[in-house]
Amino acid sequence: MTLAIFDLDGTLLSGDSDYNWGQFLVEKGLVDTQVYKQANDRFFEQYQAGTLDIHEYLAFSLAPLRDFSPAQLSQLHQDFMVEKVQPMMQEKAHALLKHHKEQGHFLLMITATNQFVTGPIGDALGMDHIIAPVPEVIDGQYTGNIVGIPSFQEGKVTRLNEWLEQTGHSMEGSYFYSDSRNDLPLLELVTHPVAVDADDTLTQIAQQRNWPHISLRD
Hints:
CATH architecture: 3-Layer(aba) Sandwich
CATH class: Alpha Beta
Order of helices and strands: EHHHHHHEHEEEHEHEHE
Radius of gyration: 17 Å
């Protein structure tokens, strides 16, 4: 099956689910409002600039998960989906996913946002599989650590290659849709790289290399 690979934040969604999860926690008063918001804003700026230390960020973003039970986190995420994620859903993104599905393609989402946040979003979008940073869980409780390599920048290629070895899927004829300069390593790997509502750096690269540049914004 041909792989149709998608970034999530800023690509299929009109915003960033990771950043908005942080905002959600702040708005609900579940974290130190001023300190957490400032850090969340700073990390988001670093991501946009291509300078983010993914391990430092994941330590920050996963820490609050330790403070809640699985039942509490499940309810929080349901509320998060309604309040933050659904408004970022895009009709053109759904149409693009439907188009690839109708072609018999395998829908694969690769994101740098952790699996707790993105798993339910991927399910809602109808993904066949999701590759995301995996939060560590011990005795049913999140520890704040991650398992394995984060799927960020070159890490997306590493995690994808591991998955290809495990599943036997091929990169022949593959597509990858992304908005971010951070995804250049994977964009260079696929058969059909597509820039989507891209940042300035990726826009310039796409123009230089004659890559398609599309918009999914409604």
